[in-house]
Amino acid sequence: MMAYLIKNAQIVNEQNIFTADVLIDNGSIQRVDSNINVEKNHQLIDAKGQFLIPGAIDDQVHFREPGLTHKETIKTGSLAAVAGGITSFMEMPNTNPQTVTQELLEEKFAMAAKSSYANYSFKFGGTNNNLDEIKKINPKTTAGLKLFLGSSTGNMLVDDWQVLEDIFKHSPVIISTHCEDEDTIKRNTEIYKAKYGEDIPIKYHPKIRSEEACYLSSSRAVELAKQTDARLHVFHLSTAKETHLFDSDIPLDQKQVTSEVCIHHLWFSDEDYDEKGTHIKWNPAIKTAQDRDELLKALLDNRIDVLATDHAPHTLEEKSQVYTQAPSGGPLVQHALPALLEFYHQGKIRIEDIVQKFCHNPALLFDVDKRGFIREGYKADLVLLNTKKPWTISKDNLLYKCGWSPFEGTSFQSQIEKTFVNGELIYDNFKFNDIKNAERLEFDR
């Protein structure tokens, strides 16, 4: 394994920015200091003028393997993630078959061990009838439990309240939820289908998957967590109203209930549906510009704890169907960090806060062992950022298997220059070193 010495980097870590050198050897950060001497076995990288940050940890991706690999694979998704500065991911259980038994969970881990370029873990899926399997989850080797309280695939909608209460009482790991009230969505859908048939104009998507549907489900989940003393993490908030369910005045490690926002809910609004159409059809729906702005405000004042992508690709053919048939979701891992850096350039967020919410906090929230920070002895998952190197997203530089992005045609001011995974330089300015040294995430629980 190569030893690297990164010189003169602007290190962003634990709410500080400082100039220092970083020595990487044997997969770990050996030293963080000023003026580290270069040895013969060191591969020297001069990072003057660039930010060095910990690799991002994405707590919500859909890499579609097994069973849906025409959209994405663990290999293609992890390559795109590494190119986007994401060095670790937690993948969701709604694949085919769904990850709802311990045997199927281990099969996915075996797939990732062979093909992933980024560090990996998987969420176990809850259903109305697999509580015994949930109780078997090993907290040290599995990221957590995912519950669909709306908008599920297959049989993963958990809509039996007694079952849900039992799961909250007995889950050995943190519970992550997709919160949208299914009955509200069904009623709204029927109203618009009666008027438009199957081809409902996309602009009504946030009316169908409404603020009411989101808040009703999120508030119930938060209430249940408090009643059962469960550890709850609510995925992808999309409304200003929901943000007021969460505390901002206590440290992350003391929170029983936490929340997340995704990049698309911070970037787009309902004003973009006319141009982007079903390419920005997500569940939960992108809502108003006011919601978008309030979500950013909640992220900055710590009501929202974590940034994520909810990377969920579909083919263009699938996305081009009429409203009721077009699936929700889109590819994001390659462009999430560059998009966040646009907010930094616009003065909307400090780079220290991007690192806090996309690197540090996912590690803290999920108890990820020795990742998410630039600390001696930690795994060398590192990203060099050039914030003065504009580029434009086009089909020629996309890495998603689905072959499209809602950001196509967008120009970003910052590029990911280099990405290290466990001390190996995997990505270097649009070129890859074909080295698979990703590791299964471990959890200090």
TrEMBL record:
Keywords: Hydrolase, Metal-binding. One of its GO terms (cellular component) is cytoplasm. Coiled coil: none annotated. GO terms for biological process: purine nucleobase catabolic process. Its cofactor is Zn(2+). Pfam families: Amidohydro_1. Its EC number is 3.5.2.3. Belongs to the metallo-dependent hydrolases superfamily. DHOase family. Class I DHOase subfamily. Catalyzes the reversible cyclization of carbamoyl aspartate to dihydroorotate. This is Dihydroorotase. The lineage of its organism: Bacteria, Pseudomonadati, Bacteroidota, Flavobacteriia, Flavobacteriales.
